[in-house]
Specification:
Number of domains: 3
Strand order of the largest sheet: 2-3-7-6
Strand content: 5-15%
CATH topology of the largest domain: Butyryl-CoA Dehydrogenase, subunit A, domain 3
Bound molecules: flavin-adenine dinucleotide
CATH superfamily of the largest domain: Butyryl-CoA Dehydrogenase, subunit A, domain 3
Low-confidence stretches: none
Helix content: 40-55%
Number of helices: 12
Mean pLDDT: 96
Number of strands: 9
Shape: globular
Structural class: alpha+beta
Largest sheet: 4 strands, antiparallel
Distance between the termini: 36 Å
């Protein structure tokens, strides 16, 4: 059964989506996002004890794919909200979880996660943002960029240097010293509210510093948070593949050339087969990774990297096949397949580029066959 029939509220959420309008406007109306956040569907794995939906990773994945099939920008915002909740869950004290998780799951507040900086992209160990504790306060100074949902967020989970390691701190978007500006028009996920965030000696109470993150290695903090983010992005890729498959198949049945529906021309049929294979591969990779996360398997981290890599690759390939099948009927910039084509490429850049994923996968292959690591932990 499709998740919109079994997850209360999801059908309503999808029914309110105006993906082409949002893409053209480079924005989603904030009041709609607040409503979606209140429904708990933007971070649906948050436990019911905190007012959340308590979905398994696998169910949340199907939800994410359903959103991603309709609107990649909304799916990106959902991923950011879930990552913010995941950071609080893993690094917050009991009091911090009790404070922040209901905020993200039910109050309508929007969250975003900030790792990347001008000089720290793939190499997050190069982060320069400083989180300094003085007395009862923490001071945050630095610049973050490409913060998805940054233009909508009420709370930013900011990662930075802290003592001999790193830390994560929850920064209210309206705190004194915080400046949030749009990144500018991006090729994909145009309505995701990407932002540049400047933090100038932002003073916060010490309770804003997520207790269990203090002085942990930055690689650990990023890696743990990215397990959620990568799986969410991977399911978003499944959504893109499904949207492309449906659009291409419908068009190939309707459009006639040389006296036949183009689906009957074998070179076109091959592309439909490739799309179906892409959907199968990406879904299976995500189901396996979601199963590993739900089982708390030690294999989960690598299964998630593999799922993200496979789904991103298949989404790029599927959007290219769909564009070829639909041809001139799909090339207007605001059409579903054109949007999918632009959005899909983003998946190969975010939450670890293709190259970073390949290095991690190769390292895992070497280690699991008795070799020593090719690569350092700092890249995770
Ligand atoms: C749409 C979008 C949304 C984003 N959302 C967020 C967000 O919400 N929060 C956040 O913190 N960040 C976000 N980012 C930033 C994103 O995580 C980074 O763009 C990504 O990590 C890559 O960093 P970079 O762009 O600086 O590329 P670079 O790290 O400069 O890499 C450039 C190229 O070099 C390759 N490369 C780098 N090092 C190596 C190596 N050792 N071996 C082989 N190849 C290498 C890379 O794979 C890539 O192809 C977002 C980015 C985009 C585009």
């Amino acid at each position: 059964m499709p998740p919109e029939e079994t997850i209360p509220g999801l059908g309503d959420l999808l029914g309110q989506a105006e993906p082409d309008d949002w893409d053209r406007a480079h924005a989603i109306p904030k009041d709609l996002l607040v409503g979606f956040a209140r429904s708990g569907l933007l971070c649906a794995e948050v436990d019911e004890a905190y007012g959340g939906r308590g979905l398994t990773a696998t169910r949340n994945g199907e939800l994410t794919a359903a959103v991603g099939e309709v609107c990649g920008s909304l799916r990106s915002i959902l991923t950011s909200q879930g990552m913010a909740a995941s950071a609080v869950l893993h690094f917050g004290s009991a009091e911090q979880r009790a404070h922040y998780l209901p905020l993200l799951a039910t109050s309508g507040a929007l969250g975003a996660v900030a790792f990347s900086e001008p000089e720290a992209g793939s190499d997050l160990s190069a982060m320069e943002t400083e989180i300094a504790a003085k007395g009862d306060s923490v001071f945050v100074t630095g610049q973050k960029r490409w913060v998805t949902a940054g233009m909508y967020a009420d709370h930013l989970v900011v990662f930075g240097r802290h003592g001999v390691g790193g830390a994560a701190v929850v920064v209210p978007a309206d705190a004194s010293g915080v400046t949030i500006e749009p990144t500018g028009t991006s090729m994909g996920f145009r309505a995701s509210g990407h932002a540049v965030v400047s933090l100038d000696e932002v003073e916060l109470p010490r309770s804003a510093l997520l207790a269990r993150s203090a002085q942990a290695p930055l690689s650990h903090l990023a890696g743990r948070t990215l397990v959620y983010g990568r799986l969410s992005v991977a399911w978003g890729g499944v959504g893109i593949v499904r949207a492309c498959l449906a659009a291409a198949a419908r068009h190939a049945i309707r459009r006639t050339q040389f006296g036949l529906p183009i689906a009957r021309h074998q070179l076109v049929a091959r592309r439909l087969a490739e799309l179906r294979v892409a959907e199968h591969l990406a879904t299976l990779a995500c189901l396996r990774a979601g199963g590993s996360v739900d089982a708390r398997s030690p294999a989960a981290v690598m299964d998630v990297v593999l799922a993200k890599h496979v789904a991103a690759r298949e989404a790029v390939s599927a959007s290219s096949h769909a564009m070829q099948v639909i041809a001139s009927a799909g090339v207007k910039d605001d059409g579903l397949v054109a949007r999918a084509y632009r959005d899909a490429k983003m998946l190969e850049l975010i939450e670890g580029t293709n190259e970073m994923c390949e290095l991690m996968i190769a390292e895992d292959a070497v280690r699991s066959h008795g070799g020593s690591g090719l690569w350092t932990e700092t890249l995770r």
